[in-house]
Amino acid sequence: MVRTRLSDLVKERLGTFGLVAPSIAQCAVGSALAWIIAIQLLGHPRPFFAPISVLICVGVGLGQRLRRLVELVVGVSLGVGVGDLLVSWIGSGAWQLGLVVALAMAVAVLLNSGALFVAQAGSSAVLVAALVPGEDAGGLDRMADALTGGIIGIAAVALLPASPFAIAAKHLSGVLDALSTVMERAAEAIEKRDADLAAEALDEARATQAAVEEFEAALATSKEIAMISPLHWHRRARLARYETAALPVDLALRNARVLSRRTLASLGEASPPPAALAEAMREVSEAALLLQLELGAGREPTLAQQALLAVAARERPDGLGFSAHVIIAQLRSVVVDLLQATGMGHEEATAALTPLDGPNGANAKNEANEANDEAAQRR
Fold this sequence. Notes:
Number of domains: 2
Helix content: over 70%
Number of helices: 15
Shape: elongated
Number of strands: 0
């Protein structure tokens, strides 16, 4: 067991390294080039802002590099400007440094509350205040170094790009895996009448929001790389499928949380959900994995769509308690969400569902709709 977990951990780390390796190469090559260009072409003796700009613009994580470039250059300019102005009046020292940093960051907050913008203004002011005037290049030279590094960083992203498709695929895979696991555990809890399994499903569902947010950041980065790099312009159509799936998959997970919570509650009632409901949950779990595989292969998710349509067309079991009706209504919402993730329109996906009639069914449907509205507001 320990060996298996260690093997899985090593595979996970290697997979993560494979995703960030291009960014590491971009940082290394870009930093060296920015240093050489600033020295050889601009004639700056110590252009430390040039490689720093590359590192901040490229980074090794996910984020919006173009926005970081703008914030970097403006932040550096602000910090250098405030720093140079004050140091020329009050000189250098501990209290002068504190005053320069406070004023530079205060002005940055008033202009833009972005963390990078404020931090860069403060750190630039520190460097200016800590260097004795005349020891280093002036403010305009530092601003030119920052701009040079930013341009080199964007060029590195364009010419040494990570695969935008691989980034989006890996993170959506994590989201769909989580959804599949929640549905599978909820189904098993119903089959075994096991409240502990239902609680595990609920815990798993509650922990999924971080994966959704990581996927959204990864998708933004992937779209940016595809826009910047000519090498990946042809992948925009494949990325469009992930963009289509982003919001519906998020909503499917939110609905799965409500479903798992109701599953746990239902196991304490006199009329627990029938095994047929667990079977439908398991089919949705498998459809989520099919969606993951088809999108990862760059294909239209037709098999996943067919599997979901089969669940949508299922007849509702008879003799259900209130909680079971709620679970069914919530499961139907998950099916509609995933059908939309395959590219189907909302009206067409909703029309594929069998009618949900009866007083309990109507009440359950109303509760599910309220849960959906609450999820949309939280978003």
